[in-house]
Amino acid sequence: MFGNMGDMMGLMGKMKDLQARMKEAQEQLSTITESAESGAGMVRATVNGQKKITALEIDADLIKPEDKEMLQDLVVAAVNKALDDIEPKIKAHLQKATEGVIPNIPGLDLSGLMK
């Protein structure tokens, strides 16, 4: 399958390199951010590439007991949009981090290695 033992060793070396690059890329994901708004900008959520919320801004007009449910819905909407919007940035970052280590295989999704 691999020809000779040298090819196998080369492949193992590439896997180690890939793992090292993925670890470094994962650490760098905290520097990639995306923000999204809901309620015409009354709620703004910022997330990073590690899918953690880094900031949440809420317009003071929304902070009323009678608007609690609406506020909760707007926070969920803003956070979910920010998480959706950051996905392409995460994929692009991981692809760039592993460039040259593994061939660019269409459909290969490395985000599964991000656990």
UniProtKB/TrEMBL annotation:
Main localization is: cytoplasm
Against NCBIfam families, the record matches this protein to: DNA_YbaB_EbfC (TIGR00103)
Describe the protein's quaternary organization and the partners it interacts with.
Homodimer.
**Location relative to the cell:** Cytoplasm, Nucleoid
Q: Which organism is it from?
A: Rhabdobacter roseus
Q: Which family does it belong to?
A: Belongs to the YbaB/EbfC family.
User: Which InterPro entries does the entry link to?
Assistant: YbaB-like_sf, YbaB/EbfC
Any single Gene Ontology cellular-component annotation: cytosol
Taxonomic superkingdom = Bacteria
Where would one find coiled-coil regions in this protein? 8-35
Per its database record, what is this protein's job?
A: Binds to DNA and alters its conformation. May be involved in regulation of gene expression, nucleoid organization and DNA protection.
Q: What is this protein called?
A: Nucleoid-associated protein HNQ92_000353
Q: Tell me one Pfam family matched here.
A: YbaB_DNA_bd
Key words of the record: Coiled coil, Cytoplasm, DNA-binding
What does the record give under GO molecular function? DNA binding
Q: What PANTHER family does the record point to?
A: NUCLEOID-ASSOCIATED PROTEIN YBAB
Note whether Cytoplasm occurs among the keywords. Answer: yes
